[in-house]
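hiii, so i know i said id send this last week but things got crazy w the move. better late than never?? heres the sequnce for the chain we talked about at the cafe, plus the structure i predicted for it. fair warning i was half asleep when i ran it
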Amino acid sequence: MFCPNCGSEVQAGNKFCSRCGAPVASPNCPGCGSPVKSDAAFCPNCGFNLKGMARAPALSPAQPGIATDLRDLAPGEVVLMDTGIFPISYIKNIMSSVNGKLYLTSQRIVFKAGKLQGVGGVSSGGMFIPNTKDAYKSKEYFAIPLSEVASVDSGWSSITVHARTNYKFGGMRKTKEWANEIRRLIQSR
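okay and structure toks below
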């Protein structure tokens, strides 16, 4: 089965496309737009070969790997940016940080702790030095709806998101781009 929005291959039983977030519960034929069954080989209306469709092209070089490991996207929600393969730190306070990955979607900012990251340690200059005794313990995962974001500040290697609570993320690259994109999204709401 293929996504009716972007053409990516979708595993049988999935309700949403893992690439673009579009609903795929009742796919449509790319040839004529008629609804087709998820296991159909040909469109019953126009005869389009559904199994012979080419896979969608890979993500553009400007967006390598985006959204490959964020699975809870709402319909129509798209991941715009992520922090890449190197972990960044969510700085809870001066003595506690959690390493993980940050995503910016069209609807929210999501932090997901890394599987091998500790929950305790020391933050120094935007870098996190984990406590090895706490490795594998972090289950930190949260989302900040863009509707709750009042402003964002960027520093040399960190951004601070001002919402109901202030959230500081350190050890980041491209902080100005992150801050500008978040500002653009909250201003367009």
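btw Residues 175-187 form the longest helix (13 residues). thought thatd interest u
miss u guys!!
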